[in-house]
Design the sequence.
């Protein structure tokens, strides 16, 4: 097996199975019904967003922190974010086992058997974008967001890359999860979508280009630098083995990065 074949197969497997999708869809239907019953007209809309709508979510077997982002938009805009987080937490306590619930500022997390749901409170004025809790203010203020705008940007970038970019991103996210989350997952995807690629024609090429092109700030934690440097070294050695017509060694090397 070649490095390209191995990486292609791993990227193809790094998607939700049909049974996982069915379980998630069932959970979302239940969640929607319970939100409507509990909040009624207190919420204006609610919907899924994030990696599960972009085709870049990983199965939990490859990323223990994999989750479904779900936004709940409240009609009342007068309170601070914590007020809405508390309301979501009370809703979760009312409809789900307490062992399945955790507050992870600025969201409420439902830890179900098959997946986690990240419930994100939001508000929206008539002329404004959605607003979610701002991380830079200890979650006491709001920041504007367009939760699904990035989907179209990534889709366009993926088309330009002959549909190899999303598989390469899934591989990068898999490495990131195994490495202890060197990077925040969403930021990693945004960076990848904005990259310029040349001489890339396979999943292998795009994945290697992403690893080679990623960097960290000088003041990043040393463990993060070490993990990234290890990834770059493995990719470099893999290329050297390929150039020396040593495909077995190349495959063994890349499996240190992507088992």
Sequence:
């Amino acid at each position: 097996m070649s490095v390209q074949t191995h990486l292609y197969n791993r990227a193809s497997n790094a998607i939700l199975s049909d049974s996982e999708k069915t379980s998630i869809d069932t959970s979302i239907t239940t969640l929607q019904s319970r939100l409507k019953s509990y909040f009624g007209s207190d919420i204006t809309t609610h919907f899924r967003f994030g990696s599960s709508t972009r085709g870049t979510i990983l199965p939990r077997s490859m990323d223990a922190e994999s989750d479904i982002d779900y936004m709940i938009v409240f009609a009342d805009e007068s309170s601070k974010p914590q007020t809405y987080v508390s309301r979501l937490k009370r809703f979760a306590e009312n409809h789900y086992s307490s062992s399945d619930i955790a507050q992870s500022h600025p969201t409420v997390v439902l830890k179900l058997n098959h997946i986690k749901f990240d419930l994100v409170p939001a508000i929206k004025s008539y002329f404004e974008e959605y607003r979610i809790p701002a991380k830079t203010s200890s979650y006491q203020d709001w920041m504007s967001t367009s939760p699904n705008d990035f989907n179209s940007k990534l889709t366009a970038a993926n088309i330009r890359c002959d549909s190899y970019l999303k598989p390469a991103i899934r591989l990068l996210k898999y490495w990131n999860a195994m490495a202890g989350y060197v990077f925040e997952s969403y930021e990693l995807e945004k960076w990848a979508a904005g990259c310029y690629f040349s001489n890339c024609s396979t999943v292998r090429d795009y994945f290697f280009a992403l690893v080679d092109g990623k960097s960290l700030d000088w003041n990043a934690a040393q463990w993060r630098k070490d993990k990234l440097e290890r990834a770059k070294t493995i990719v470099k050695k893999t290329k050297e083995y390929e150039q020396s017509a040593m495909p077995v060694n190349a495959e063994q090397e890349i499996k240190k990065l992507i088992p």
